[in-house]
Amino acid sequence: xxxxxxxxxxxxxxxxxxxxxxxxxxxxxxxxxxxxxxxxxxxxxxxxxxxxxxxxxxxxxxxxxxxxxxxxxxxxxxxxxxxxxxxxxxxxxxxxxxxxxxxxxxxxxxxxxxxxxxxxxxxxxxxxxxxxxxxxxxxxxxxxxxxxxxxxxxxxxxxxxxxxxxxxxxxxxxxxxxxxxxxxxxxxxxxxxxxxxxxxxxxxxxxxxxxxxxxxxxxxxxxxxxxxxxxxxxxxxxxxxxxxxxxxxxxxxxxxxxxxxxxxxxxxxxxxxxxxxxxxxxxxxxxxxxxxxxxxxxxxxxxxxxxxxxxxxxxxxxxxxxxxxxxxxxxxxxxxxxxxxxxxxxxxx
Length: 349
Ligand code: ADE
Fold this sequence. Notes:
Strands 1, 2, 3, 4, 5, 6 and 7 form a seven-stranded mixed beta sheet that branches. The protein has 15 helices and seven strands. Helix 1 crosses helix 11 (about 180-195), helix 8 crosses helix 11 and helix 9 crosses helix 11 (about 180-195). By secondary structure, it is an alpha+beta fold. The chain has helices spanning about 10-20, 35-45, 50-60, 65-70, 75-80, 85-105, 110-115, 120-135, 140-150, 160-175, 180-195, 215, 275-285, 330-335, 345-349; strands at about 235-245, 245-250, 265, 265-270, 285-300, 305-320, 325-330.
């Protein structure tokens, strides 16, 4: 960060702006630790508008730490379906269980103790500490890194842990002790709705523009700097929709690795021809009656891209001798019971 930039100058304009512009959000009116935590984990994955229905559904189904701690895996995965990064919700249950067993079901009002819970990193521990308990600790996410890089005109690589740690240390020095939660949320909010991640920053309405070094120098669009990440591995896959009457064949993925424990449409490695697919389906012990090729689709994970082709295959309901144990689920069950990740969205329809 620019060494001679006095970060403290941000505090007052940020707070004044937040008092008049903070969005009304369902986790803000009653910022209990549980709500803040759930919302922050969801917000690490997608935008506020997309989070709202997930948050409402999750709170209704699992209104407190005890409910989450006791929830069956398929159920919480279903509530998370579509958000991605499913290990996050698994860790949430682990953390919930620790909170129940070690803290009697109440979140500890202590940054270090929060940080030691499964799945809580510096950002989430800082957000829960400050928003729920008023503890003056920083909550520096991608939004905050963007705002601070621009305000200080810093070209340092925000994907580097050392840069993030240095920014956290700087922010920690200026957090007002009496309004820690509002201060952190104001920084995040400016990043989310003014100093936006995609598209043009709205400098003309930004309360920090008058002291923003990037704005003065005309370099807002160049920041923050992110060094290009390693390329993703590409995997070709063939996805099968096996239909038996009105039911569709799905299977549970292994308990380790990508999309662990979720349900999937059966898939095969590579882009296979109709003949190859039919041979495989027969080898599994099903009697295919009809096969229809489907359009291709792509899904991007953090380290892998799936490039998919697909086939819809009607199989004989009576004649089967299966080695591949599939669950044949009705549309209602697919919708309500089995968590199926968005990677299969193109074929779920
Ligand atoms: N994005 C991440 N955390 C947020 C919060 N607390 N409020 C609004 N947007 C956010």
